[in-house]
Amino acid sequence: MKRTLAVTGATCALALAVTACGGGGSDSASSANQELKGQTVTVAGVWTGTEQANFKKVLAAFSAATGARTEFVSTGDNVSTVIDSKVQGGDAPDVVMVPQVGVLQQFAAKNYLVPLSATAQASVTSNYSAAWKNYGSVGGKLYGLYYKASDKSTVWYSPTALDTAGVTAPKTFKDLLGAAKTVSDSGTPAFAVAGQDGWPLTDWFENVYLSQAGPDNYDKLAQHKIPWTDPTVVKALTTLGTVFGDDTLLAGGRKGALQTDLATSVQKVFGDKPAAGMTYEGDFVSGIVSGDLHKTVGTDAKFFPFPSVDGGPAPVVSGGDAAVVLKAGKNQKAGMKLVEYLASPEAATIWAKLGGFLSPNKGVAATSYPDDTTRAMGKSLVDAGDAVRFDMSDQAPAAFGGTQGTGEWKILQDFLRDPSNPKATAATLESAAAKAYQG
């Protein structure tokens, strides 16, 4: 593969043994094996199922190249609460894969984090757009390495369901509603909505809001520079309510949606007994399709970009998981070596080949992705450069945007349950946001 990473002795030592490095790759790998042999790196993250299994293959490659032993600890969705508890209890992992900018900032404010090494920073400068460096930085210091990213502006659909209904991929939200009604009228509910998890509902809102209200308002709302009672928020909720408020469009109606997690929402569309024609979420849906359901992305499952709303540009919302090193970890040195490895194109390529993964690393060749669909999304993510808009809820304090059963997740679940009063929902969102940002 083409490498744009400036190769240094440290970087070479952390590359896979099969990767050629100037001056002798095998000697460097052997040296690294001696350096980390017998050491253990503990990594915590939200990933479960196929995602966790694929990341463990990356960790296995790191172990093979360095001699270090790795352990993965699943945190569940409440990363902030779990890591707080582990730090206070003296059982902190060495590395955390943080899925929210707000949580990264919170950890930095609590003095939990070690700034990334010069080697990791050089890799970020060489291989990442400035936007990703900015999202990983607090107070001018780089703490987070964005290993995994996502395109959260994708609507996945069953070609069979849309063909049966005689509809094509819509370009506007109005056309999406029309297509959804036609699909539902054909006998299959249009959408499987993952309401049980909470966070997919924030992604629905963000795509509508970014397109309808524009990027400037998006940035202001993400930073709480305008209140959630702003008319632009009420308008976006009203628009979203046209989907959430129509039980005929939802598999199982609103009640069923609130009992459906992400994996189940994908299964309802692409499983052996389809119960819906479409599901909305990010590119990582492809990993569930290919890994859990053993279906073919690009044939059995296709996507179209989240459509434009009220004449605005089509939204491009992204997210990602940043590797950070904890001061309270028992092995900072080996933890930092892992982050340096994750910054390399080699480490990203391992998961890229497995599917269900996108990397913001420019050094990852498009041919690393397993299908044309994912290649197109990977190219789009890198080409977006500094125009990437990070998931809004992930930028918020965890108490508002990143905790199950409270804040935005819970309020939008309540909105899905009853979307009849967008103004009241906006007021509730503002009350929760003001408390979280003030805290």
From TrEMBL:
Pfam families: SBP_bac_1 (PF01547). PROSITE patterns: PROKAR_LIPOPROTEIN. Residues 1-20 form the signal peptide. Keywords: Signal, Transport. Belongs to the bacterial solute-binding protein 1 family. This is Alpha-glucoside transport system substrate-binding protein. It comes from Actinacidiphila alni.
